[in-house]
Each structure stands twice: as structure tokens, then as C-alpha cells.
Amino acid sequence: MEPVKCPFCNPFADEIVARNDLCYARWDRYPVSKGHLLIMPFRHTPDLFSMTAEERLALLALIDECKAVIEENFRPAGYNIGFNIGKAAG
Question: Tens digit of pLDDT for each residue in 19-52?
């Protein structure tokens, strides 16, 4: 049986909205709301808890850049920043 490919590993360059050395952001293919971005490390990790301290800092730093992208495209009234960890969390 062929292993399941991770939908987040090896993103296409045109999918990347913002990036730094360790993490990248892309528009969600199945957005909950307009402007829904996903931010994740380039290195495959199962969740936030398995990321290195440097990856977590890089992820948080990318939020500021993503806010500017969302503002430019959607001008939202507010933001919701969350982490889904585990299948039950979504």
C-alpha cells in the first residue's frame, strides 16, 4: 500500500502567500471563512507540540505578515487564530 501523501508538505511555489526560513502560509483550500490562511512549518510535523522552538517562533512571526495580506485582500472586522491538534480538533 502506498503511503498517504501529506497535503501540506512540498507546497507549490504559487500556493505560498507568505514565508520565512522555517514556515509558510497558504490560502486554505476549504476555508471556514473568507481570508482563511493556514500557516505551517516546511518540515513535516504532526502538530504544534512536535515543532522545534525555532519553528514555533517562526510560525508566530509569520502571523504579522499574514495579517497584512488578509487586510489587503479582505479588510476583516476581526481575527481568529487557532491551532487544531489531533483529528478530533478538526
Answer: 999 999 999 988 888 899 999 999 999 899 999 9
Buried residues in 51-60 as b, exposed as e (16+ CB within 10 A): beeebeebbe
pLDDT digits (tens, 9 = 90+) for 49-68: 999 999 999 999 999 999 99
What whole-number distance in Å separates Cα of residue 4 and Cα of residue 48?
20
Tell me the C-alpha distance between 76 and 4, whole Å: 35
Q: How far apart are CA 45 and CA 58, in angstroms?
A: 14
Query: For the chain, which residues make up each domain, given as ranges?
Result: 13-75
> Can you tell me the distance from the alpha carbon of 26 to that of 19, in angstroms, rounded to the nearest whole number?
9
Superfamily of domain covering 13-75: HIT-like (3.30.428.10)
Whether 47 contacts 86, CB under 8 Å: yes
